[in-house]
Write a structure and sequence with these properties.
With 257 residues, the chain is an alpha+beta fold. The chain has a single domain, classed as Alpha-Beta Complex (Fumarylacetoacetate hydrolase, domain 2). Helix content is 26%, strand content 30%. It has helices at 3-16, 23-26, 32-48, 63-69, 120-126, 148-153, 201-212, and strands at residues 53-59, 75-80, 90-91, 100-109, 127-137, 158-163, 179-184, 187-193, 224-229, 234-235, 241-246, 250-256. Helix 1 packs across helix 3 (32-48) and helix 5 packs across helix 7 (201-212).
């Protein structure tokens, strides 16, 4: 397949806030390696334009999200500096195609994680603190009709993210039994526990670091890692307010305009 052509199409779709047909539909031979090559081309493009990689996101870790996209393995994407929405700022829905919101934990690293062979214990040792987070996912592929390779190529269907202000040492969090509720416009729309993310979100981070080693990439000290959604994503539009509250860890919120 033509990797550059696919990368260009996704780049233009994101820039113009428009949707395009499934990349895999036009390229049935497309592999996961092809998809990550497309993702990296566009990340390099953004870096050359002055963007900075501030972390990584892991997707498709929960049963809810895997069922939504009919897959059984996680994926990942890059978090860029211009994707961060500060608490109190509004998220501009007009800059996206078909946004959805997920609640998850963000790991803030104090040590570099470089696979392969990393374990949950390594992630605990490398983590400075964890915070509640919201990821605003979006797909440049028409109507979210995507396969695994499509979302990978589209930078893990990422768009924006919001990090909470309450920092909790990882040792103070029960990574299996911490509950979360996700509210939309003041109404409960989803709830789950951190066990939904591979039994322990730290296991998800270890998986990511080990996967990245195949591409010569490491999770650098100071990075933010979104460990994966606890529940299925919820559609968002202008005027909507979302908040995710984690038991004993505080909450994080965002409003769309």
């Amino acid at each position: 397949m033509n990797i550059q052509k696919a990368a260009d199409a996704l780049c233009e779709a994101e820039k113009n806030h428009c949707q395009i047909p499934m990349i895999s539909g036009e390229n049935p031979e497309m592999t996961i390696d092809d998809a990550y090559a497309i993702q990296l081309l566009n990340i390099d493009r953004r870096k050359q334009a002055g963007g900075k990689v501030v972390g990584m996101k892991i997707g498709l870790t929960s049963v809810g999200m895997q069922k939504l996209l009919n897959v059984d393995v996680p994926d990942y994407g890059h978090l860029m500096s211009d994707m961060l929405v500060l608490e109190g700022e509004k998220c501009h829905s007009g800059e996206m195609c078909q946004p959805k919101v997920e609640g998850e934990l963000a790991f803030c690293l104090k040590k570099t994680l470089k696979g392969p062979g990393l374990t949950v214990a390594d992630v605990y040792d490398a983590t400075d603190y964890v915070v509640p987070a919201l990821e605003i996912v979006d797909s440049r592929i028409k109507d979210w009709k995507i396969k695994l390779v499509d979302t990978i190529a589209d930078n893990g269907s990422s768009a924006r993210f919001v990090i909470g202000s309450r920092m909790t040492p990882i040792q103070a969090v029960d990574m299996r039994l911490t509950g979360m509720i996700l509210e939309k416009n003041g109404e409960l729309v989803n709830s789950g526990t951190t066990a939904e993310v591979w039994g322990n979100p730290a296991a998800s981070v270890a998986w990511l670091a080990n996967q990245l080693s195949a591409y010569g990439i490491e999770l650098k000290a100071g990075s933010i890692v979104l460990a994966g959604a606890l529940t299925a994503a919820v559609p968002a539009q202008a005027g909507d307010c979302f908040s995710a509250s984690f038991c004993g860890m505080g909450s994080v919120g965002v409003k769309f305009d």
